Design the sequence.
C-alpha cells in the first residue's frame, strides 16, 4: 500500500481502532497501533497521528478543550461522518478488511449474553449471523468501555468481568444505533440490570434518577448501594458522550415511572 496518501480502507481501519482505544493510549508504543501499522504498511507514529487527527473531530474531546492534532483531512471527515450513520457497517467492514490483510480475528461475547453454542456448532447462514453478532458485540463493548476508562459510570467499579456495555435505547428498539457508542453506558452488572429494567434513569444533565419502586424498598442493599446514587451525576466518558435524545427516550420508553416532569 502507498506510504503517502492514506487510502479509504486504511482510514476505516484507523477510525475503527480509534473508537476502541482509550484517549490516553493513542501513542505509537501501543501494541494494537503497532499491529495495525504493520498490517497497513504505515509506521506506528503515522497511525498514532492519524488517530489523534480523528480525535480532533470528536465533540466529546474538543468540548473539554482537547483538540487532537487539528489537521484532519477531508477524507478523515468523510469517514467520520459515514460511520456516524452506519456503526454496524464499520464493525463488519473493518473485521473483513483485517482478515483480508492477515489480521487475527478476535471477538468476545458481551458479559451476560454468552451462549453455550459457538459458531462452529452451526453451518451456513446461521453460523454467519452468529459470527457477525459477536463481531458487533465486541466492537460496541470495547468502544463503550474504553470511552468510560473501563469504569462503571455510576459506581466506579473497574473489574472488567463485572462491566457491561449497556444500551441506553434498547438493542431491539433502534437498529440504526445498536452499535453507536453514544447509545452506550459502562455499567456494572447490577446497575445495568436496574437501568435495563427501568428502575434507574438519567436526566438531561446526566444525573441519576431512581424509580419510586427503589426509593420505597426497605432493604439494606438498596439503601447502601442504590439510594446514594440519587441525584448524582454519572462519570462522563472521554469520548462519545451519551446522546441526550437517547436519554430522553429511555425515560419515556423504559423508565418504570414514565415521563418525568
Sequence:
Amino acid at each position: 500500500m502507498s506510504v503517502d496518501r492514506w487510502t479509504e480502507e486504511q482510514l476505516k481501519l484507523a477510525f475503527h481502532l480509534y473508537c476502541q482505544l482509550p484517549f490516553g493510549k493513542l501513542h505509537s508504543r501501543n501494541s494494537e497501533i503497532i499491529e495495525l501499522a504493520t498490517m497497513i504498511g504505515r509506521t506506528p507514529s503515522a497511525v498514532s497521528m492519524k488517530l489523534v487527527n480523528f480525535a480532533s473531530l470528536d465533540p466529546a474531546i474538543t468540548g473539554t478543550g482537547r483538540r487532537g492534532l487539528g489537521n484532519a483531512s477531508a477524507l478523515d471527515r468523510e469517514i467520520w461522518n459515514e460511520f456516524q450513520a452506519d456503526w454496524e457497517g464499520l464493525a463488519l467492514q473493518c473485521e473483513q478488511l483485517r482478515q483480508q490483510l492477515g489480521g487475527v480475528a478476535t471477538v468476545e461475547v458481551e458479559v451476560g449474553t454468552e451462549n453455550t453454542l459457538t459458531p462452529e456448532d452451526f453451518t451456513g447462514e446461521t453460523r454467519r449471523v452468529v459470527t457477525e453478532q459477536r463481531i458487533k458485540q465486541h466492537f460496541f463493548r470495547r468502544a463503550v468501555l474504553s470511552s468510560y476508562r473501563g469504569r462503571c459510570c455510576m459506581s466506579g467499579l473497574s473489574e472488567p468481568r463485572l462491566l457491561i456495555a449497556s444500551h441506553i435505547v434498547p438493542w431491539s428498539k433502534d437498529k440504526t444505533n445498536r452499535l453507536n457508542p453514544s447509545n452506550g453506558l459502562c455499567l456494572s452488572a447490577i446497575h445495568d440490570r436496574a437501568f435495563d429494567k427501568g428502575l434507574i434513569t438519567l436526566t438531561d444533565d446526566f444525573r441519576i434518577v431512581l424509580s419510586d419502586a427503589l426509593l420505597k424498598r426497605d432493604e439494606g442493599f438498596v439503601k447502601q448501594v442504590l439510594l446514594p446514587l440519587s441525584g448524582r451525576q454519572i462519570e462522563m466518558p472521554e469520548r462519545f458522550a451519551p446522546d441526550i435524545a437517547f436519554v430522553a427516550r429511555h425515560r419515556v420508553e423504559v423508565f418504570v415511572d414514565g415521563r418525568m416532569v
